[in-house]
Amino acid sequence: MIAVLRLGHRVERDKRITTHVALVARAFGADKIYVDTKDDSLERSIEDVTNRFGGDFEIETGVNWRKLVKSWDGKIVHLTMYGLPLHEVIDDIRKEKNILVVVGSEKVPAEIYQIADYNVSISNQPHSEVSALAIFLDRCLRGKWRRMKFRGIIEIIPSERKKKVVDKLPTPEECIEILKSAGCSDNVIEHCKRVRDVALKIAECTGANKKIVEVGALLHDIGRSKTHSIRHGIEGARIARKLGLPDVIVRIIERHLGAGIPKEEAKKLGLPERDFIPQSLEEKVVAHADNLIEDDRIIRVEEEIERQMRKGNMDYARRLRELHDELSKLCGRDLNDILREGG
Ligand code: SAM
């Protein structure tokens, strides 16, 4: 795991440069970026790049950096022109498993120099967090970017003189064929179509990418061709990966159960011990559209919440409420009303 911590982000002034720090982190092989200041629009634009160009890169903004560095299970590398030269320390740093790379903006808090396991310079001249991060990741991961495979909804074909782009997202008709070939029953396919209709309405008012939502919704239950158990999300993701479907669709399938399954619950349920929580807007839209469909009717979220509370699934009920409220807030109105109006 290699993550980047961007300190001192100012929402108005640093939008472009922090975006570039995040893009460099993603393209050069980091797994995640943490940004100290909350910035929804930054999160959304990086999510959008990852959705379109592929990979599993994550962004989290509004992070309490003191808490993060304190709890970081690994080494902390601070990039600064005042540090030790990269070539002197890179061999030691490469031996570490989990690395948090800290880059600043204007002036970083003095305590970072003490907290860091390594203060590293890439020349002792002032330049930029974007260049420093690119060079550091290239050297630390030994040019991993050359070997990385991104499965986006578009693929760039290297070309000497022109832009060559291939569309990798299946059409809705192809999705139905994919479901049939995987062995999904007619009932499952009908359900997927209903989820698609509701998901598209939610996408419309939340501003989610409709093409991605439509394909994700149509394919979300592909795993039911193998099992109707709680494992159908993981099974579906496995099938989708094997079919070479874009990463964004694989993630929608894998994280669509309920309002997501956190690591601790996943373990109890016999799933791999990691979070299955919908992260991107598109993942949330499909997961919630599925929550709001029962047989062939659209239900109010309260019906499902009450059912889960009666079963004693209080955490799940709380997550459903939060997901519903988050999407309703983006729409400016309660989704229950919007979907009922839509008929
Ligand atoms: N003047 C600021 C300070 O004293 O911390 C640095 C500002 S610089 C524009 C922003 C960030 O770029 C720094 O926090 C550091 O992470 C990175 N940076 C700039 N020059 C660097 C260098 N020569 N080596 C490593 N990192 C560098």
Question: Can you walk through the features of this model?
Answer:
- With 343 residues, this protein is of the alpha/beta class.
- The protein has helices at 15-27, 40-53, 65-71, 86-94, 111-115, 129-140, 172-182, 186-206, 210-219, 232-242, 247-254, 263-268, 281-291, 301-310, 314-331, 335-341; strands at residues 2-6, 32-35, 58-61, 75-85, 99-103, 118-121, 154-157, 164-167, 293-294, 297-298.
- Strand 4, helix 4 and strand 5 (99-103) form a beta-alpha-beta unit.
- 41% of the residues are buried.
- The structure holds S-adenosylmethionine.
- Residues 79-81, 103-108, 121-123, 125-129, 132 line the site of S-adenosylmethionine.
Please summarize what this structure is:
Helices cover 50% and strands 13% of the residues. The chain has helices at 15-27, 40-53, 65-71, 86-94, 111-115, 129-140, 172-182, 186-206, 210-219, 232-242, 247-254, 263-268, 281-291, 301-310, 314-331, 335-341, and strands at 2-6, 32-35, 58-61, 75-85, 99-103, 118-121, 154-157, 164-167, 293-294, 297-298.
